[in-house]
Write a structure and sequence with these properties.
formyl-coa transferase, domain 3; 2 domains; 6-stranded parallel sheet; 3-stranded antiparallel sheet
C-alpha cells in the first residue's frame, strides 16, 4: 500500500518528545526517517519509563518505543568534527531535518539553517525549542513546566489557594511536534512552487499560548472571565463544566449551550430546584457556587453508571463522557472495533501493545512496519551501504568515539 510520504527523506536529531514525535508522524505515514542518537546513551527518552516489569533498560522504554516506530537508528557523536561532517553528508540528500537542541549549540556545531543552506538549498529544517530562535530567552533551558508557565497555561490549572499545576503527560512536547509537522507539510507544498526549502522556528511556549490561552482571549474581552485556577471546576465556561461522580466512576459534563443544559435538566426530570432563580444564572453558578449545584446533580448521577449516562446524553445531544480507567479503556468495544491498539514485536522488549495512528485514511493508511530501532541498529546500512564507508573505516570511527 502506497503511503502519503513515500519517498520523503527525513533526518531527526532530537531528544525526548517534541522532535521525535514530529518525525514519527512522517515515519508512520511512509517517510524514511533516520534518527541520530548519541553513542552509548542515545536519546534521553531511553532513560524514561514505563519499562516492562519496572526494570530500567534503554532498549525497553515505553516512551522511546512508541515515539520512534518505523525509524532507522544511527549513532553519531556530534561533539566531534568527524561526526558533524558525517551528518552534513547525510543532509546533502534529504528533504527535512528536525531537531530540538539549543540555538547556541546548533550555531557552534555549524548545523544551523544558514550553515546548511550551502549544502542543500532544498532542505526544510524545523527547530523546536522552549522559547524560539530569537529574543532574550532563546538560549534558556526549560522544562515543560517552564514552557507552560511562559505560555500562560499555569494560571488556570490547580486550586486557587495552592501553587499552579502543569497539564499532565507532556502535552506541550507533543503539541510542539504537531505544530512543526504541520509547518513542514506546508513548506513541502511550497517547495514545489518556489523550488527551495524553508526554515521553521517552533517555540513550545508559543504553542502553549496559541492552543490553550489564545482561544480564551475573547472570553475575557467580552465576558470578563479570567480562567484563574478553580480546582476541579473548568475555568472558562458557564455551568456545568465539571467532573462528577456517578454509580461506578466519574463522568465529565459540560454544556456550553443553554439548550444543552435545558435538555440535561429534562433528562433529570426537570427538578423543582431548577426553577429557583439562584440556579438559573449559569455564570454565577460556575464562578460563585459550583459545589452547591454539584451537590444537587450528584444524587441523580449516582443512580446511573457511566455507560448509562453516556447513552442517555448521547441521545439527547448533551456533551458528557465517561472517565475510563486504563483497563476499561484498553478493552473498550469501540476502540477494539477501530483497531486503536495494535500489538507489535520488538527484539528486546518483546511483544507490546501500542496505540495506532491518530487518524485513518481510506487509501494511504497509517501503519507500523518496523519497531523502534536498537541503539545504532542501522549504522552499517547507512554508513556503509549509503555513504560508502568500509568496515575498516567504521571500526576506526568506533574506536575514535565518533559512532
Amino acid at each position: 500500500m502506497r503511503k502519503i510520504f513515500d519517498g520523503l527523506k527525513v533526518v531527526e536529531w532530537g531528544n525526548l518528545i517534541s522532535a521525535p514525535y514530529c518525525a514519527k508522524l512522517f515515519a508512520d505515514l511512509g517517510a524514511e526517517v533516520i534518527k541520530v542518537e548519541k553513542p552509548h546513551t542515545g536519546d534521553k527518552a531511553r532513560q524514561h519509563g514505563p519499562f516492562p516489569e519496572d526494570i530500567p533498560n534503554q532498549e525497553k522504554s515505553g516512551l522511546f518505543l512508541w515515539l520512534n516506530t518505523n525509524k532507522l537508528g544511527i549513532t553519531l557523536n556530534l561533539e566531534t568534527k568527524k561526526g558533524r561532517d558525517i551528518l552534513k553528508r547525510l543532509l546533502e540528500d534529504v528533504d527535512v531535518f528536525v531537531e530540538n537542541n539549543s540555538p547556541r549549540l546548533m550555531v557552534e556545531f555549524g548545523l544551523d539553517y544558514n550553515s546548511l543552506l550551502g549544502i542543500n538549498p532544498r532542505l526544510i529544517m524545523a527547530s523546536i525549542t522552549p522559547f524560539g530562535q530569537t529574543g532574550p530567552y532563546r538560549d534558556y533551558k526549560a522544562y515543560e513546566l517552564n514552557c507552560s508557565a511562559a505560555g500562560g497555561v499555569l494560571v488556570g490549572v490547580g486550586y486557587p489557594d495552592r501553587e499552579p499545576l502543569d497539564l499532565p503527560l507532556s502535552q506541550g512536547g507533543y503539541e510542539a511536534g504537531i505544530g512543526a509537522a504541520t509547518a513542514i507539510m506546508i513548506a513541502l507544498m511550497a517547495r514545489k512552487r518556489i523550488g527551495r526549502g524553508q526554515y521553521i522556528d517552533i517555540s513550545e511556549a508559543e504553542i502553549w499560548a496559541d492552543l490553550h490561552v489564545g482561544v480564551n482571549v475573547l472570553t475575557f474581552m467580552y465576558r470578563g472571565i479570567t480562567g484563574i485556577r478553580r480546582g476541579t471546576h473548568g475555568g472558562y465556561f458557564l455551568y456545568p463544566n465539571e467532573i462528577l461522580p456517578c454509580k461506578d466512576g466519574y463522568v465529565a459534563l459540560t454544556c456550553p449551550q443553554l439548550a444543552q443544559w435545558q435538555r440535561f435538566l429534562e433528562l433529570m426530570g426537570n427538578p423543582e430546584w431548577a426553577q429557583n432563580p439562584r440556579y438559573r444564572n449559569r455564570r454565577a453558578m460556575h464562578e460563585e457556587y459550583p459545589d452547591e449545584v454539584n451537590a444537587l446533580l450528584i444524587p441523580w448521577l449516582k443512580e446511573h453508571t457511566m455507560e448509562e449516562l453516556f447513552q442517555l446524553c448521547l441521545k439527547q445531544r448533551i456533551p458528557l463522557v465517561p472517565i475510563y480507567r486504563i483497563n476499561e479503556l484498553m478493552n473498550h468495544p469501540h476502540l477494539k472495533q477501530c483497531n486503536f491498539f495494535i500489538e507489535f514485536d520488538h527484539p528486546e522488549a518483546g511483544r507490546l501493545k501500542y496505540t495506532a495512528g491518530p487518524c485513518r485514511f481510506s487509501v494511504t493508511d497509517w501503519q507500523i512496519e518496523r519497531p523502534a530501532p536498537l541503539l545504532g541498529e542501522h549504522n552499517e546500512l547507512i554508513f556503509s551501504q549509503r555513504l560508502g564507508y568500509s568496515s575498516h573505516e567504521l571500526a576506526k570511527l568506533a574506536r575514535e568515539g565518533v559512532i
